[in-house]
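Researcher: Let's do a round of design. I'm pasting the structure tokens now; please hold your answer until I've finished.
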């Protein structure tokens, strides 16, 4: 690489940070012929060192990179002041002019200091170089408090450094959460819990208004925009970076609107002889602040200089994994991909163990797009490797590492029942220490699943996993009164024609039944069309909600939810709902399912309310039942310029067909008129999306505690073909699912999964499609509005009283207060939530 050889070309590198060092090292490896003589000019007095590990300098670590060797001329402590593109020379502050055949700008970035009053006070520093750290360490002696402005990667490292110097440390971040460039809100919130547990004060979401001086004229405090004042005898700015592009600006090279030297895919500027790499380069509108893409750019330019004309920078993987103050933090792929249409985020949070996990998948839940890990980054390598590829399982399997993660592998500190704050470990201990063997015992012992009930399937999985681990055969029995599963009981009732619980328990069970098997059998009987649910013995089998055909609320009142098929409603019906709400003093709420809920009705008021609604043409919306709730829809092709099918008409057709259909659990549906998916169909038990050729049918999706993206069952179905497919799907689910099992977990547990389901309902593998079709037709033909039937039957109306001996007396324990011009429950301490039942 001798400069006196006439065949040697001259390369000048401006800047000697990590990117510049990588460029020189890679070029030395590839330039075996010694084509290039390299001169590196860096303004720091030190040669290149590891900026990623900057904080460890205070612990005595040696951060210096290995020297390049004698053949590379390194000029440390010298600053380039200008570029003469015509003469191809650079001028330095030492009065030198250095010629070049190729010039690489690796000037990096400078810390951003917000224009806040007091930023120039003594005691205010930036956090960028070893010299900065030395100055901070020297100034910190004798001081007790400090503040770091910036909650990003470097800001938190700075906070760690300030705390390590013995100062009480605060972190001020204007964004609502920490590390906003790498983490989503959930991850940032979990990281904050970790950081605060280490003794740091975090102020996020509020900007500072000024730095204020003390009696000695040096910085003493940080005043926040909300008026709060933080003691800070030392302030460090680490609030972001700005590309060092002043040399490019000075010689007329294009720069970005917000800074950065514009380069092409080969990292070449407008001038063919000048390249830019690292934090000063703007590639496709992006300035990269992570070391990995900066190194990639360095290797691209080294390749170009070594005659590899095809070397291009194809973007960079923004993935990062680090241990921040002892906390594992990682992001991979695009951690914000779910902000765009067509991507879904699946999250897991364990606030006790301070673990947050999130993966983002494509709209069909088959492709991993990115994610965030805080507190546990063990799966980072595997997940990062899968970005852009097909998921090896369902999203929850990917998060937890296997299908049993929701049972046997669930961390002990995970709160399973949030209503009663019951952890997985509490359930496991109860099962093992008290030799519990069935779900009822677990619920009675731990209270898990005794409130909203949404955690019951997970509680059951924990029970089964614990019993299996102990070598105990897991029973399929629905409860202690039957040795059969719900699916087996369904087949027994269907085949034998049994129409009462009494006969079923006499012939196939024992005892008198319980609150587990009675509602389950009642649901089976209703699914098979055995009369009104409040008819004769069936009325005694129902749980509280079905018992009064209304949802029980926290203060003993009930909600009234009339059906609004497809969300379509006339002004006249809207007026009726408003009048009913006004006359009975009810709270009104428009729901996410495109219905109007009326809250606060006393039990004796329900028949009078429903009489007015039924007379106006309404019917029960079945918000209380394990049945179809709603079929949500967008406006479709009738109104929307993007719609390709009439989604409203289809939603109404579906809702009127499946209304009142009793199932193991509630059913939700939606119809979207185009692929923009405004109705959110792919998060429903069965969802429909219009195509140019018909309808795509998605099944087994749900939100709730364990969200699941629906799977595509069939494509481009005709109207009648869609109806047939849904008929069979629903009836097969009703026939085979477990008690209180949503379609999502049912499909996950179904042997053969989606492929098997498709073979059964679309290809008639089991030869039962005719039976499923007939069963649905019986349901449709036999449908009758439950509330309409009650209003016409004086005997059924007798149950709607608060007190048997005083039918017209309202429950005195029910009280309300007013908030936002509507009522809300007023619960007195120690008062029962419902009396007189």
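Researcher: That's everything. Go ahead.
Model: Designed sequence:
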């Amino acid at each position: 690489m001798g400069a006196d050889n006439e065949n040697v070309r001259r390369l000048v590198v401006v800047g000697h940070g990590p990117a510049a060092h990588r460029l020189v090292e890679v070029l030395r490896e590839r330039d075996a012929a010694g084509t290039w003589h390299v001169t590196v000019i860096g303004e720091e007095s030190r040669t290149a060192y590891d900026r990623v590990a900057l904080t460890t300098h205070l612990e005595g670590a040696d951060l210096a990179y290995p020297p390049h060797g004698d053949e590379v001329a390194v000029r440390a402590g010298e600053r380039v002041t200008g570029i003469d593109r015509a003469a191809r020379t650079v001028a330095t502050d030492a009065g030198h002019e250095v010629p070049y055949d190729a010039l690489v700008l690796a000037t990096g970035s400078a810390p951003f200091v917000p224009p806040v009053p007091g930023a120039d006070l003594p005691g205010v520093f930036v956090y960028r170089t070893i010299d900065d750290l030395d100055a901070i360490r020297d100034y910190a002696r004798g001081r007790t408090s400090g503040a770091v402005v910036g909650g990003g990667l470097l800001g938190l490292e700075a906070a760690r450094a300030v705390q390590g110097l013995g100062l009480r440390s605060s972190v001020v971040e204007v964004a609502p959460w920490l590390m906003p460039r790498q983490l989503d809100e959930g991850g940032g919130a979990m990281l904050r819990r970790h950081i605060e547990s280490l003794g740091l004060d975090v102020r996020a979401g509020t900007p500072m208004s000024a730095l204020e001086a003390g009696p000695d004229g040096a910085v003493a405090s940080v005043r926040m925009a909300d008026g709060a004042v933080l003691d800070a005898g030392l302030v460090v700015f680490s609030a972001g970076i700005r590309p060092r592009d002043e040399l490019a600006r000075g010689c007329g090279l294009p720069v970005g609107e917000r800074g950065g030297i514009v380069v092409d895919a080969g990292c070449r500027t407008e001038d063919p002889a000048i390249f830019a790499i690292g934090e000063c380069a703007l590639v496709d509108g992006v300035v990269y602040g992570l070391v990995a893409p900066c190194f990639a750019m360095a290797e691209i330019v080294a390749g170009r200089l070594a005659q590899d004309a095809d070397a291009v920078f194809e973007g960079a993987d923004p993935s990062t994994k680090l241990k921040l103050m002892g906390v594992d933090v990682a992001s991979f792929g695009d951690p914000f991909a779910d902000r765009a249409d067509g991507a879904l985020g699946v999250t897991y949070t364990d606030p006790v163990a301070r673990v947050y996990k999130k993966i983002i998948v494509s709209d069909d839940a088959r492709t991993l797009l990115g994610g965030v890990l805080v507190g546990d980054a063990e799966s980072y390598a595997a997940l990062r490797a899968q970005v852009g590829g097909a998921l090896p399982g369902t999203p929850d399997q990917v998060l937890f590492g296997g299908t049993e993660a929701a049972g046997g592998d669930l961390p002990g500190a995970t709160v399973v029942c949030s209503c009663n704050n019951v952890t997985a470990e509490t359930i496991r201990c109860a099962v093992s220490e008290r030799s519990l063997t069935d779900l009822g015992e677990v619920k009675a012992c731990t209270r898990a699943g005794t409130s909203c009930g949404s955690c019951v399937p997970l509680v059951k999985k924990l029970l089964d996993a614990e019993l299996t681990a102990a070598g105990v055969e897991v029973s399929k029995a629905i409860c202690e009164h039957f040795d059969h599963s719900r699916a087996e009981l369904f087949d027994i009732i269907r085949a034998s024609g049994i129409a009462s619980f009494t006969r079923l328990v006499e012939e196939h069970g024992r005892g008198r039944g319980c609150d587990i098997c009675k509602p389950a059998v009642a649901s089976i009987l209703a699914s098979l069309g055995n009369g009104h649910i409040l008819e004769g013995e069936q009325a005694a089998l129902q749980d509280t909600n079905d018992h009064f055909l209304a949802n029980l609320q926290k203060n003993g009142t009930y909600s009234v939810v009339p059906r609004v098929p497809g969300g379509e409603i006339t002004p006249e019906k809207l007026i009726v709902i408003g009048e009913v709400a006004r006359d009975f003093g009810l709270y009104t709420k428009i729901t996410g399912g495109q219905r109007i809920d009326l809250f606060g009705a006393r039990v004796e008021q329900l028949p009078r309310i429903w009489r007015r609604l039924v007379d106006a043409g309404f019917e029960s919306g079945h918000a209380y039942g394990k049945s179809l709730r709603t079929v949500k829809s967008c406006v479709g092709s009738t109104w929307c310029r993007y719609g390709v099918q009439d989604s409203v008409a289809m939603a109404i057709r579906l809702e009127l067909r499946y209304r009142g259909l009793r199932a193991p659990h509630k059913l939700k549906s939606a119809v979207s008129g185009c692929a923009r998916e405004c109705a959110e169909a792919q998060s429903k038990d069965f969802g429909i999306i219009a195509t140019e050729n018909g309808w795509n049918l998605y099944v087994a999706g749900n939100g709730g505690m364990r969200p699941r993206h629906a799977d595509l069952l069939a494509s481009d179905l005709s109207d009648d073909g869609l109806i047939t497919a849904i008929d069979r799907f629903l009836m097969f689910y009703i026939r085979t699912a477990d008690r209180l099992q949503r379609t999502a977990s049912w499909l996950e547990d179904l042997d053969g999964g989606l492929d098997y389901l498709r073979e059964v309902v679309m290809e008639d593998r089991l030869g039962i499609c005719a039976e499923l079709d007939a069963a649905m037709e019986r349901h449709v033909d036999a449908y009758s509005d439950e509330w309409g039937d009650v209003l016409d039957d004086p005997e059924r109306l007798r149950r709607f009283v608060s007190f048997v001996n005083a039918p017209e007396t309202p429950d005195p324990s029910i009280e309300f207060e007013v908030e936002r011009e509507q009522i809300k429950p007023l619960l007195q301490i120690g008062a029962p939530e419902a009396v007189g039942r």
